[in-house]
User: Which sequence fits this backbone?
């Protein structure tokens, strides 16, 4: 009997493949996105110094989101991470979709981050 790959396994496999091809530098840090069923979060990471420069999550108390697992929450997190990255002095990033398909909440977060002036 063949092993059946679960959805989580497929996501992890895609994530390993994506992370093998990209890395955040000091000039262009990595915008990493994590998506669960209930929440979404994003971090701007410098992989050279192993430091997180900015982060935003739907679990934060100040976000005042009704539900963290929808497109509205993803847009709010995208705007927040874009503004926080600007404060940290980051203008361009490398987008790490975290093994998720570039669709739905991931796309909404990326578009909202681009609206704040973040380029990738």
Assistant:
């Amino acid at each position: 009997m063949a092993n059946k790959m679960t959805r989580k396994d497929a996501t992890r496999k895609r994530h390993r493949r994506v992370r093998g091809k990209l890395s955040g530098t000091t000039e262009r840090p990595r915008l990493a996105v994590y998506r669960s069923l209930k929440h979404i979060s994003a971090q701007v990471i410098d992989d050279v110094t192993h430091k997180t420069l900015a982060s935003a999550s739907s679990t934060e108390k100040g976000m005042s989101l009704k539900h963290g697992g929808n497109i509205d929450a993803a847009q709010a997190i995208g705007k927040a991470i874009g503004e926080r990255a600007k404060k940290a002095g980051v203008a361009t990033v490398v987008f790490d979709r975290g093994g998720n398909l570039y669709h739905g909440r991931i796309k909404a977060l990326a578009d909202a981050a681009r609206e704040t002036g973040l380029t990738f």
Observations:
- DSSP finds three helices and four strands in the chain.
